[in-house]
Amino acid sequence: MTAQTSAVQIKVQGIVQGVGFRPHVYSLATRNKLTGWVRNTSAGVEIELNGAPEVLEDFYQRLQAELPPLARIDHIERQTISPNGFSDFQIIESQPLPGDFLPVSPDRAICADCQRELFDPHDRRYRYPFINCTNCGPRFTIIEDIPYDRPKTTMREFTMCPRCRAEYDNPLDRRFHAQPTACAVCGPRLIFLAAGIKNESEAALQSAREWIKSGKIIAVKGLGGFHLACDAGNETAVAELRRRKKRSDKAFALMAFNMAAIETYAEVSPAERKALLSNERPIVLLKAKEHTNLAPSIAPGQKRLGFMLAYTPLHLLLLEPEQDFPDVLVMTSANLSEEPILYRDADVIPRLSLLADGYLTNDRPIHMRVDDSVMQICQEIPQIIRRARGFAPDAFNLPASQPSIFAAGAELKNTFCLTRDRYAFVSHFIGDLENYETLTSFEEGIQHYEKLFRIRPEIIACDLHPDYLASKYARQRAEAEGLPLVEVQHHHAHLAACLAENHWPDSSEKVIGVCFDGTGLGTDGAIWGGEFLVGNYREFARPWHLAYTPLPGGDAAARQPARMALAHLNSAGIDWDESFAPAQNFCADERSLLRQQIRLKLNTPMTSSMGRLFDAAASLCGVRQVNTYEGQAAIEFEALADPQVTDAYPFLIANGLIDPAPMWQALIADLSQNIPGATMAARFHNGIAQATLSVCQMIRQETGINTVALSGGVWQNQYLFTRAKQLLEAQQFQLLFHSKFPTNDGAIALGQAQIAAAIHQ
Ligand code: ZN
Ligand code: ZN
Ligand code: FE
């Protein structure tokens, strides 16, 4: 050993297992003639190196600069040690330490190399639907436990053939330690099942394509569950799918083979293209082109289409372009109405027999169900609407270490959150906790995350609402395990989620939180949803809110915008009769019953909900009187709004209340003059944006606070978001909003966890 030899030990944490990190280390070390070893531990990767100091420094820089595509370093440290006199560089056996954990990679779309091999007739995996490598393929959905090794995945049953094994063992191969690696000889097989038919492999694929071509509905097993697929250009098939799914209006997601197919039907901006092509391959909501030959019932009443690119080799083969084969397929989660996506073969065949004509399945089990993610791009800003496949269970880095917290999340669009050390694991989208199946999926998800990331919660957080199933679960658990329980007000959780996502420090500094959504229980027992808060993680005040209106029939009002419209008119002191669009939705008896209900306050909680105000305005403009899915009237009202219109309806802003009465007067005057709905919708949106600015200015004047956090499902409204952002920024407000997590209730759990952490510090 020469005098210049020194030695270092390097420890790396982050997404560094199952993503080609050790081969990266190996090739860097051997290229630089460094000696030593690298190994996986249950906390990350450890490296020991001997060599000249400047070469070691170069290695350290390149290690971080030239990462494999799916790897991510969250924490790295190095320490000088005494040289060990190694003669070569080796990848050595894993060293599990009890209690340690590391992040797990989300499932990844097929990489360019695998896609090339898939369609290369000379490649041994030509047309093999489960081709994958270290840079792509299933991860989270097949992992049962850590460390991430094949025996702890659902690939356990498949014994590698000698050729796959040789690739798996070769540190310089793209499939070195790629746990799901397989080929047609040794790996999972496609199976097609339908009345009187059962075939396998290529024949199964061709049968499925034949059936789709002939207008049938096929269940297709993907990464995180089954989809229902049919020809998106066949109105009969799409209408039949709606009938079978009992889904009257909610848009169906679409899948295309490539960008060219998407661009036939929708406009794609550069930012949208980037999102579509990203590793996460989400569904992206795009502006639909007019006069295409897509089935009209794909997205009734909407100007947007939800598109995703084929993201597995199976999807590419299923959608492979061919004369007479549809270039776009409907790809909607296989479930019965609002139940979670089906993912086990044993559950699918009996339950889906009413939904699908045939099944394209395979013998690789799915361990964790995960839906497709959904996002939209607004003003170049990516906004996640549903955070699931491709994103979960990626950890969010916290500014400081925290105790282990379990936060149960909200009732609708539920996700839960578990924290440990400097990580927050926000779960994939679970769904609306309104039925037994979704609750089971919630509980199984929690157990899985706790096991996978070795988390034992010390504190439990949940929503104030006594009846939410998530809150009930949290309370029972806190009691059973003797843990402190933090009950968090819904809109405070929204505010905290927005702060956390923007890495806002836990200090005494406060921000203005503009939390607009459909519903959340307030500290006064009313249903809040149009709130201006002033606060931080620890506390909040509510200086301003939308004036209270009765919510006749409670939850029923959310399904019936017509009820909301009449209740709002009543509050504004405006008499209504059967000439109003919402009143026409009821017969004379129902109308007098409704009047009485509002007057006597029977089953009529008070609400400041912004979502319900949108419903009411949409109803009065004749857009929609009954919602068949949450937020439908508001979505259609936004679609109607004319972006050229700049004037706004007035609101009365005084004494901490935003009173919509003047807005209703103006809207009714417009109605009587037959002003187009597009203009009224725009004036309404502009009015809310103006009112938001006015209230923020008043709060700033009083408190000197200049930072505004926008959170709550209403901010998914691109028209409103764009206008409010422009107005606030023009007045030099600093804006915080959501981009990594949903602005809807999908981020509530993160907010709850951060509030619990701050309180228990
Ligand atoms: Zn690949
Ligand atoms: Zn093989
Ligand atoms: Fe909410």
Provide a compact summary of the structure:
Helix content is 32%, strand content 22%. The protein is of the alpha/beta class and 761 residues long. The strands form five sheets. Strands 6, 7, 8, 9, 10, 11, 12, 13, 14, 15, 16 and 17 form a twelve-stranded mixed sheet that branches.
Task: Provide an overview of this structure.
The chain is an alpha/beta fold. Helices cover 32% and strands 22% of the residues. It is built from 22 helices and 31 strands. The strands form five sheets. Strands 6, 7, 8, 9, 10, 11, 12, 13, 14, 15, 16 and 17 form a twelve-stranded mixed β-sheet that branches. Strand 30, helix 21 and strand 31 form a beta-alpha-beta unit. The protein is globular, with a radius of gyration of 28 Å. It starts with 5 loop residues before the first strand and ends with a helix. The protein binds zinc ion (2 copies) and fe (iii) ion (FE). One zinc ion (ZN) binds next to helix 4.
Rounded mean pLDDT is 94
Beta content = 15-25%
Give the N-terminus to C-terminus distance in angstroms.
51 Å
Cα gyration radius (Å): 28 Å
- Count the DSSP helices: 22
Helicity level: 25-40%
Structural class: alpha/beta
Counted beta strands: 31
Largest sheet: 12 strands, mixed
The gross shape turns out to be: globular
Hetero groups in this structure are: zinc ion, fe (iii) ion
- As residue ranges, the low-confidence spans are none
Please supply descriptive tags for the structure shown above:
binds zinc ion; 22 helices; binds fe (iii) ion; alpha/beta
